[in-house]
Automatic annotation (TrEMBL):
It comes from Roseovarius indicus. Pfam families: LprI. This is Lysozyme inhibitor LprI-like N-terminal domain-containing protein. InterPro entries: LprI-like_N. Residues 3-86 form the Lysozyme inhibitor LprI-like N-terminal domain.
């Protein structure tokens, strides 16, 4: 499961890198420095949400042996959602 979570994390990182390039382009075109910091803040908030959500999920298993698998699946599902969201900003 850890390998699958790492794979999804790598995909998110790839899309984040591409979205960050787009954010840099926006800042260059507009002469503002708002898109990059906004995307950075968004990613930081998303990571905090993912970790908190999956930690909450873990508590619902009350120590069951399947807890680690459920947490891994949670991180994978949320990571796949994040990758799809970031993909919208790739040009």
């Amino acid at each position: 499961m850890e390998t699958e979570v790492q794979r999804v994390d790598e995909i998110v990182a790839m899309y984040l890198d591409a979205a960050m390039k787009f954010a840099h382009e926006i800042d260059t075109i507009t002469g503002e420095t708002t898109a990059v910091p906004a995307l950075e803040a968004s990613q930081t908030a998303w990571l905090a949400y993912r970790d908190a959500q999956c930690a909450f999920l873990a508590t619902t298993f009350a120590g069951d042996p399947g807890t680690d698998m459920a947490v891994g699946a949670c991180k994978m599902n949320l990571g796949e959602d994040r990758a799809r969201e970031l993909a919208k900003f790739i040009r």
